[in-house]
UniProtKB/TrEMBL annotation:
Belongs to the cytochrome P450 family. The keyword Transmembrane helix applies. PROSITE patterns: CYTOCHROME_P450 (PS00086). This is Cytochrome P450. Gene3D superfamilies: Cytochrome P450 (1.10.630.10). Keywords: Heme, Iron, Membrane, Metal-binding, Monooxygenase, Oxidoreductase, Transmembrane, Transmembrane helix. It comes from the Eukaryota. The chain crosses the membrane at residues 20-42. It comes from Ficus carica. GO terms for molecular function: heme binding; iron ion binding; monooxygenase activity; oxidoreductase activity, acting on paired donors, with incorporation or reduction of molecular oxygen. The keyword Oxidoreductase applies. Heme binds at C450.
Length: 510
């Protein structure tokens, strides 16, 4: 009876003149929308997963465990800052280390903190695409290697890059360039020797940028040179990093996209023509148009990708050396034995500097520049991961930071122990960080693994060897070394490292 009265009442409302019915209709629709939002939200993994499961029917009902987050926005908060730490903590609390589902607004996401599942994701052909952020589109990076869709175009770009930058012959050919830049860095620090407190970040970023500009455009800048072109490229790269590293709400909530509340879209729209003009100008000047538009599509990305990872990693390594003087003096002993104090390091020494190589790996383990492997992967088709159904369009992440600190896979994982990577002349093969063992794969793995990994690691190891060979690296006495992190495009030291350097040998022609 009550129901009849209610329906009569609703009927009466609707049949009244349209003015008085509208508010009730809006209210009813609002309530329906709210109920649906709560229904979706109640699902493990939150609203985006709930929406999928309610729409796709019983076939896909075995749910991946994961946090619900908040209605509608899901777990956007997990990506707010130091996402690798927040995601690891969430996976722990949901007992979902192998595979955790979560929602970033309307985006379905999964993340793994386990090497076996990481291998399954990274090496699967299903995850050969990347989700393209608005910032990447606006900066036209969807046409660059890092974001291009898997297919003929992407393969062609990777082949061009391999032939012009990353193959062993090219890496060998740029040895002299790395040597010259290392000498410039040594001279810069030498001028600040003694008890002067020096920030290393600016020197490392400039060195790294100059190295890339030299390799990609043939442009040679001095480390301390300041002219309009150097300043312009530095500003463009800084702005680009920041924009690509930001979590953009518009990528995950269609209804806020038009508002561009974080002004990321606007800033990208302003930056893109500047980058284009800059790159176009240099290419035109050098008559490199033969590389055509395809060449142009990947060169600017190389500058963005290659510069910060190298500088960020070297800063972490130097910070560890300052903190762990015992490890630093073992590296010094090795350098004295292999190189000797009468000359500087050369790249031909590197194969003998096994302890130094172990130090670099240990820093990559504890402080990977891309703790979530920088850019996620996107499922091209429906697939199964770790026994769970993962639908097409799902974003997949690997929490390399969590894996490489997990006591299940590493002895005393939080201890800085480079010796764990020494094979002591046994038959044990050297641990490769290039993606074959997913307990430590800071360059990713599979089809979309980092194409710059050999070049990157060669540069880092050689520059670190040169800087440690020439100087003792000491705390600056006032600031100390703060290992707090900040996650932008890469995970950097939140408080830039300041040091004092004492020369270990006299430098000719400082
Ligand atoms: C220490 C140095 C570096 C680290 C730790 C690093 C790390 C990474 C990681 C984790 C990825 C994602 C891989 C995946 O999804 O499996 C990546 C991709 C990429 N990296 Fe690196 N990288 C470094 C240096 C470089 C350098 C020097 C360059 C170029 C000059 C470069 C260019 C790229 C490009 C173009 C991609 C996208 C590849 C694709 O999507 O096909 N990287 N890097």
């Amino acid at each position: 009876m009550k129901t009849q009265v209610e329906s009569l009442w609703v009927f009466a409302l609707v049949s009244q003149d349209s003015f008085s019915a509208w508010p009730w209709l809006v209210l009813l629709m609002g309530l329906a929308w709210l109920s649906l939002a709560l229904l979706y939200w109640a699902h493990p993994g939150g609203p985006a997963w709930g929406r999928f499961h309610w729409r796709s029917g019983p076939a896909a009902r075995r749910s991946i465990p994961g946090p619900r987050g908040l209605p509608i926005v899901g777990s956007m908060g997990l990506m707010a800052s130091l996402a690798h730490r927040r995601l690891a903590a969430a996976a722990d609390s949901c007992a979902a280390k192998r595979l955790m589902a979560f929602s970033l607004g309307e985006t379905r996401a999964v993340v793994t903190c386990h090497p076996d599942v990481a291998k399954e994701i990274l090496t699967s052909s299903v995850f050969a695409d990347r989700p393209v952020k608005e910032s990447a589109y606006k900066l036209m990076f969807n046409r660059a290697i890092g974001f291009a869709k898997y297919g003929v175009y992407w393969t062609t770009l990777r082949r061009i890059a391999a032939n012009h930058l990353f193959c062993p012959k090219q890496i060998k050919a740029s040895e002299n360039q790395r040597q010259q830049i290392a000498d410039q860095m040594v001279r810069t620090f030498w001028r600040n020797r003694g008890n002067i407190s020096t920030r290393v970040r600016e020197v490392l970023k400039r060195a790294s940028l100059n190295n890339l500009m030299w390799s990609v455009f043939g442009r040679v800048y001095g480390l301390e040179e300041s002219n309009n072109e150097v300043e312009e490229v530095r500003k463009l790269v800084e702005e680009g990093y920041e924009l690509l590293g930001l979590v953009n709400w518009s990528d995950h909530l269609r209804w806020v996209a038009d508002f561009d509340a974080q002004r990321i879209g606007l800033r990208c729209s302003n930056l893109a023509p500047k980058v284009n003009r800059f790159v176009g100008g240099i290419l035109a000047e050098h008559r490199q148009k033969t590389a055509g538009e395809r060449g142009r599509d990947f060169v600017d990305e190389m500058i963005f990708r290659g510069t910060d990872t190298i500088a960020v990693l070297i800063e972490w390594i130097l910070a560890k050396m300052v903190l762990r003087q015992d490890v630093q003096s073992t590296v010094h002993d090795e350098l004295d034995r292999v190189v000797g104090r009468s000359r500087s390091v050369s790249e031909s020494d590197m194969s003998e500097l096994v302890y130094l190589s172990a130090v670099v790996k240990e820093v990559l383990r504890l402080h990977p520049p891309g703790p979530l492997l920088s850019w996620a992967r996107l499922a091209i088709t429906d697939t199964t991961i770790d026994g769970y159904h993962v639908p097409k369009g799902t974003t997949a992440m690997v929490n390399m930071w969590a894996i490489s600190r997990d006591p299940e896979f590493w002895v005393d994982p939080l201890e800085f122990m480079p010796q764990r990577f020494l094979t002591h002349g046994s038959n044990e093969p050297e641990f490769s960080v290039f993606g074959s063992d997913l307990r430590l794969a800071p360059f990713g793995s599979g089809r979309r693994t980092c194409p710059g990994k050999t070049l990157g690691l060669t540069t880092v190891c050689f520059w670190v060897a040169s800087l440690l060979h020439e100087f003792e690296w000491l705390p600056d006495g006032q600031n100390g070394v703060d290992l707090s992190e900040v996650l932008r495009l890469s995970c950097e030291m939140a408080n830039p490292l300041t040091v004092m350097v004492h020369p270990r040998r006299s430098i000719i022609n400082p």
